[in-house]
Amino acid sequence: MPFYQFTVPTDSPSAKLKADIAAAVTEVHTSVTGAPASYVNVSFSEVPPGSIFVADKAVPYGRMVGIIRTGRTPETKRELISGLAAAWSKVTGEPVEGFALFLQEVPGSAVMEEGRILPEASED
């Protein structure tokens, strides 16, 4: 179920290492949550340099929005987002302080995969 969406500049290390980032993200998600690897979705959108901003300043590093099911503890969410940041940085060499990650939660009832509505995270 998780869907990790990366927006990265086309000339960045992240854009050149998509498969490695996807593997690292999958490893973090499965180790933290216990979910099978086949549940983890990762996508990348490349944008021209100078297309990602913080306030009115273009920034050189990407952003990630992760959509996960509601029901994880605050500790699990902290472990997950910290692990994702560390994995992204390790793979790309980009500093953790340079990019931003966001987790959004949705109920399992708002997700359909492979033709079935998912249970809540607490029901796994």
The Rg value, from CA coordinates, equals 15 Å
- What is the H level of CATH, i.e. the homologous superfamily? Macrophage Migration Inhibitory Factor
Give the total of beta strands: 8
- Please give the largest β-sheet: 4 strands, mixed
Mean model confidence by pLDDT: 95
Total helical segments: 3
Per the CATH scheme, the topology name is Macrophage Migration Inhibitory Factor
Q: Strand-and-helix sequence, N→C?
A: EHHEEEEHEEE
Distance between the termini: 12 Å
Overall spatial form? elongated
Across the major sheet, the strand order is 2-1-5-6
- Binned strand content: 25-35%
Low-confidence stretches: none
Count of the separate structural domains: 1
Question: In terms of topology, how is this protein built?
Answer:
Layout: E1 3-9, H1 13-16, H2 18-33, E2 41-47, E3 53-54, E4 57-58, E5 63-69, H3 74-92, E6 100-106, E7 112-113, E8 116-117
Parallel strand pairs: 1-2, 5-6
Antiparallel strand pairs: 1-5, 3-4, 7-8
Helix pairs in contact: 2-3
